[in-house]
Amino acid sequence: MHQLLIIVAGLLALPATPPTADQISRIQDAQRTFFKQHPQGAPQEELTAFFTGLLDGIEPAECSWPQLKQLMGPCSMVPAKRDAAQARLKQLASEATADGFDAFVYASSMSKEDAPTAAALFGHPGYAMWKQSASPSDRTRLIGRLTSDQFMQAGAEIKELESWFTPERSAKELAAGVQLVDAIKRLAPDPDQSEQFRLRLLAAVVMAKEKASPDEKVALGKLAKKLDNAITRGEFMDHPAPKLDFAWAQDATGPVKLTSLADLKGKVVVLDFWATWCGPCVGSIPNVKELRAHYSPDDVAIVGVTSLQGKHYPGGTAPVDCAGDAAKEQGLMAEFMKAKGIDWTIAFSEQEVFNPDYGVNGIPHVTILDAEGIVRHTDLHPADPMHEKCAKIDALLRLQGKTPPAAPPEPKPEAASDGAAVPAVPTIPAVPMIPAGKP
To answer: Among 167, 223, 163, which residue's Cα sits nearest to residue 196?
Structure first.
């Protein structure tokens, strides 16, 4: 806490000028440290005092949109800064620039009740400039943010974007089309619209692969599999879980007989996709430990699913090279489990930990199966509130006719000095997750 106060004190002396990248970085670091020190929230008086000091010398009216975008969260915690930030946002959102359009989209997302029409959104004076500089992912992400009404009004824009995904595009560019498939599936009233675009995109990927370089062929091959898996076809949730093959599995007592998900049938299964190099994964170990202690292993199986990474990260020391030596990496995992007190099953799957069949685009990533092996919940985080996780699992246990253990208490909001309630769990910053890839 002393170090945190030093950081805040250093910020107090800053003049009211446009913030530098270093200042913004320091503000974000201090904010993360504060919430880490207050995992159950803080009294409103302390919260306001901290952010008031943190933002002293920062004037929202002087910020560009890229700067203000990073400071909207902290500014929302201080009434004066919040009002100034919202006024600046409104000003920036009217500018006929790419940043102006981005600010307009941000402002629109703050109130679904007052969402603009598609005509107002795509008719913004900065939209054409934004579209020219935006990546395919940016454009598909925008479609994904639309309301159902906006989507219905945006037929021309969506058709134009669909037609952009041709065999001439790179694997990286074509990969953005998966987001568009998902957006159309979620927003279009006609389910065939998503399926038709998925098939056209898959055909473009196959054609692109025929004339691609060796590296591109590999990427396009993976993309083709992703476009034809259960998730993209809409056959994942409430369907049998995709195949998982395990080459090694162990719990606190030693080796475990686990070669496939069939070995766990009859139990609710919590699959936690993770890796030793992933900080948020390792940081979530206490959360998984709490869940393991709450349920009997006879009723709920918890499996930490990883895959061979070629390196092992013990923590506190340099990573250990295990390339080409599966036995070495698995042996180090057994030592890691003992050192961390892991008392649930850890398993190396034959499939990559970033498993496209399970939609694992970042780790940690939790999927829950019912006792028949049907996918019931996915894209969860092991650090999600305990009572929320248990509510999902308890419902599945009751379907088996089992009585779950007593539910954990929900966290109670702390009372502020003025009697108002303070949220028990802060919404800033979001729980971290590592995107696909290795360090």
So the answer is: 163
Alpha carbon dihedral 238, 352, 379, 219, in 10-degree steps, equals -100
Question: Which tokens is 261 given?
Answer: 């998900």
Q: For residues 382 and 379, what is the distance between their CA atoms, to the nearest angstrom?
A: 10
- 377 strand-pairing partners: 368
- Start-to-end Cα distance in the chain: 30
Q: Which helix (H) or strand (E) holds 103?
A: helix 98-109
Q: How many helices (H) and strands (E) does the chain have?
A: 19, 13
Residue 268 β-bridge partners: 300
Instruction: Delimit the CATH 3.40.30.10 region(s) of the chain.
Output: 246-408
Encode pLDDT of 166-178 as tens digits: 999 999 999 999 9
- What's the pTM? 0.68
Q: Cis bond leading into 429, ω under 30°?
A: yes
DSSP codes of every residue in 70-86: HHHHHHTTSHHHHHHHH
Coil/strand/helix, residue 304: strand
Q: Is residue 151 classed as helix, strand or coil in its secondary structure?
A: helix
For 241, residues 6+ apart whose C-beta sits below 8 A from its C-beta are 261, 269, 358, 367, 369, 373, 374, 375
SS3 sequence, 128-148?
HHHHHHCCHHHHHHHHHCCCH
Let me know the angle formed at the C-alpha of 412 by 390 and 429, rounded to the nearest 5 degrees.
Answer: 80
The answer to whether the beta carbons of residues 366 and 274 sit under 8 Å apart is no
How far is it, in rounded angstroms, from Cα 258 to Cα 389?
24
CB 233 within 8 Å of CB 263: no
- The most distant pair of C-alpha atoms in the chain lies apart, rounded to whole Å, by 68
Residues 289-310: what's their mean pLDDT?
A: 97
For the cut 50, the answer to whether the pLDDT of residue 423 exceeds it is: no
8 Å CB contact between 95 and 103: yes
With respect to CATH, is domain 246-408 assigned 3.20.20.140?
no
C-beta of residue 299 within 8 angstroms of C-beta of residue 291? no
Look at the chain and count its residues.
439
Per residue in 218-269, pLDDT (tens digit) is 999 999 998 998 888 888 999 999 999 999 999 999 999 999 999 999 999 9
Distance of alpha carbon 205 from alpha carbon 199, whole angstroms = 10
